[in-house]
């Protein structure tokens, strides 16, 4: 099994007792993959930036009143080496590693890297949980059959997932940039897509119910959450390759994640596409805190 990072480099800066592989239910898996960036680059620096920023996130979560690292243990693996590998080999490597971790009953939180990586981790989880549904937070639907000639583009990741998972088990939130073919694919295949403009227009807001209830209704019991940070509004998340206006804000997003955690069994997650900008720290910290909130809500 891959080596773990120590207190100087691991998620939250956790001492050995609560961050060893054997003692930890939670595995942070840094996957600095960057091959197909279309606009702004830097996603390969995402995992390290999240880990560094996490040293300024508190162990104690004031909302859930827990110190989750002491309850469950959080081990951070050494970043998986994907550099220089062809797409298929890199994805295969990540799939195999995820599969090993799931077999050992770990909860894997993968840090990207480009969104492309999610097809590998989701494939591993989908084999273990046949009813698995996917909650995708993203500005883009990522359903292009291929992009710039590459079917392993970050813009095609969910099209690849729909090749092995029933598209009706995909729920997308915050979408606000796609091509016509993607919109048609969504309708044709029965994907649940909550477009950003529909959320803002109140399409899913019912009496005493917020839009996220619609998300809950379309998820199965076992859920995998894939979080592309460009789902957030660029005002709180400028550090990403393709920022899009009219994004989600912090509180509504974590409210949704909290409800998902309470009412479903979240079995794994990833946070992808952070492309850190030198001298701009808040998006790195926001992402590290997002990971921490997800762990607190999901486990
Ligand atoms: Mn994406």
Structural notes for this entry:
This protein has 299 residues and is an alpha/beta fold. The protein has a single domain, classed as Arginase, Chain A, CATH 3.40.800. Helices cover 33% and strands 15% of the residues. The chain is built from 10 helices and 8 strands. The protein has helices at residues 46-54, 68-72, 87-103, 118-128, 157-161, 180-189, 196-201, 212-217, 250-263, 282-298; strands at residues 26-31, 74-76, 107-112, 133-137, 170-175, 192-195, 222-228, 265-272. Strands 2-1-3-8-7-4-5-6 form an 8-stranded parallel sheet, sandwiched between helices. α9 (250-263) links the parallel β7 and β8. The longest helix has 17 residues, at 87-103. The protein is globular, with a radius of gyration of 18 Å. The two termini are 23 Å apart. The model has no long low-confidence stretch (mean pLDDT 96). Residues 115, 138, 140, 142, 154, 228 line the site of manganese (II) ion (MN).
Itemize the secondary structure elements and their pairings.
Layout: E1 26-31, H1 46-54, H2 68-72, E2 74-76, H3 87-103, E3 107-112, H4 118-128, E4 133-137, H5 157-161, E5 170-175, H6 180-189, E6 192-195, H7 196-201, H8 212-217, E7 222-228, H9 250-263, E8 265-272, H10 282-298
Parallel strand pairs: 1-2, 1-3, 3-8, 4-5, 4-7, 5-6, 7-8
Helix pairs in contact: 1-10, 3-4, 9-10
The protein binds manganese (II) ion.
Manganese (II) ion is lined by residues 115, 138, 140, 142, 154, 228.
